[in-house]
């Protein structure tokens, strides 16, 4: 149970929910497979897959959930070819030109006829809620996919006061400062060998670099020309390596040997027990990474966050 990405949402006001309450509220939007005429369906499934039945897996106050999305695959070229054949046949039979509105109706009919035989594409997106830390963490490669899960969870719960975290200064400014040494690189961070730079002009280009010394002359020349760093490969505390982007998205997340060794020390063949151990190790590590990164990027802007008056 290692996340490959981490998109973080910050709760904007105090939010707490028990595993039992979360389980109950997710049941109404549990996943149901596509019917013959459905193009897409999504819903909540057990994070443990076939090894579990609960829609929520909880450990140490962290609640893991999984959203399954099923989409019917209808190749556009095949659909267009069938539509063209039907249009040609109709025009030949009735000796008239088929207009756009009628073509759209024919296409809709073709889609309905093809759906029952269409292949299905299934995707699972995992996330965990950490109410005590005020974050929702989504294993999503894009901001769009993460927002889709957050939106679905909001509908299931009726309310979900979250937004992406904000920092005091633009991440690209900090990334650039780390490379040109105008901003101190935190002791916990080690630069990798990959980055993306963008020209700040309206029609500016993009340079993607791999396998380079990020503080070497080649990168420095781009920075001196006014380019800004928008993605950066780093290692955190020698335990986590990833690519960090200007939207604070963590991608290609890899956990180090130390964590894997700890998991290997779990002496059990029980799938659920090993899953639980991996989830616990991962969440504890990310609970250190997230505030550390926000601090390294200039500190979090919490002006839109309502404080818990009970604390």
Structural class: alpha+beta
- Number of continuous helical runs: 8
Tell me the strand percentage band. Answer: 25-35%
> How far do the termini sit from each other?
33 Å
The domain count comes to: 3
Which percent range fits the helix content? 25-40%
Give the integer mean of the pLDDT values: 90
Stretches with pLDDT under 50, minimum 5 residues: none
Give the SSE string: EHEEEHHEEHEHEEHEEEHH
Shape: globular
Largest sheet: 7 strands, antiparallel
Rg for CA atoms: 24 Å
| Annotation, overall tally of beta strands | 12
Describe it.
- This protein is α+β, with helices and mostly antiparallel strands.
- It has three domains: 7-72 and 121-163, no CATH class; 76-116, no CATH class; 171-296, no CATH class.
- 35% of the residues lie in helices and 26% in strands.
- Strands 1, 2, 3, 4, 5, 6 and 7 form a seven-stranded antiparallel β-sheet that branches. A five-stranded antiparallel β-sheet has the order 9-8-10-11-12.
- Helix 2 packs across helix 3.
- The longest helix has 26 residues, at 271-296.
């Amino acid at each position: 149970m290692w996340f490959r990405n981490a998109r973080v949402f910050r709760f904007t006001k105090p939010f707490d929910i028990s595993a039992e309450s979360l389980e109950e509220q997710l049941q109404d939007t549990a996943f149901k497979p596509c019917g013959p005429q459905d193009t897409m369906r999504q819903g909540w499934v057990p994070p443990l897959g076939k090894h579990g039945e609960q829609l929520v897996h909880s450990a140490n106050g962290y609640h893991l959930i999984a959203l399954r999305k099923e989409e019917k695959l209808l190749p556009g070229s095949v659909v267009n070819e069938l539509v063209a054949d039907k249009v040609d046949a109709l025009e030949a039979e009735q000796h008239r030109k088929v207009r756009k509105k009628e073509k759209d109706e024919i296409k809709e009919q073709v889609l309905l006829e093809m759906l029952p035989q269409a292949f299905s594409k299934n995707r699972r997106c995992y996330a965990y809620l950490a109410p005590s830390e005020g974050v929702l963490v989504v294993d999503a490669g894009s901001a769009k996919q993460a927002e889709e899960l957050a939106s679905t969870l909001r509908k299931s719960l009726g309310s979900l006061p979250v937004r992406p975290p904000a920092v005091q200064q633009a991440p690209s400014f900090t990334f650039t400062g780390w490379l040109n040494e105008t901003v101190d690189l935190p002791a916990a961070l080690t630069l990798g060998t990959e980055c993306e730079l963008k020209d700040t002009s309206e029609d500016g280009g993009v340079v993607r670099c791999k396998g380079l010394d990020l503080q070497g002359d080649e990168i420095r020349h781009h920075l001196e020309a006014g380019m800004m760093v928008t993605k950066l490969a780093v290692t955190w505390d020698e335990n986590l390596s990833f690519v960090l982007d200007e939207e604070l998205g963590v991608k290609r997340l890899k956990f180090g040997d130390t964590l894997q060794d700890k998991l290997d020390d779990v002496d059990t063949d029980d799938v659920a027990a090993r899953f639980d151990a991996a989830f616990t190790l991962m969440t504890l590590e990310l609970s250190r990474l997230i505030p550390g990164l926000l601090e390294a990027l200039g500190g979090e802007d919490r002006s839109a966050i309502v404080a818990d008056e009970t604390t």
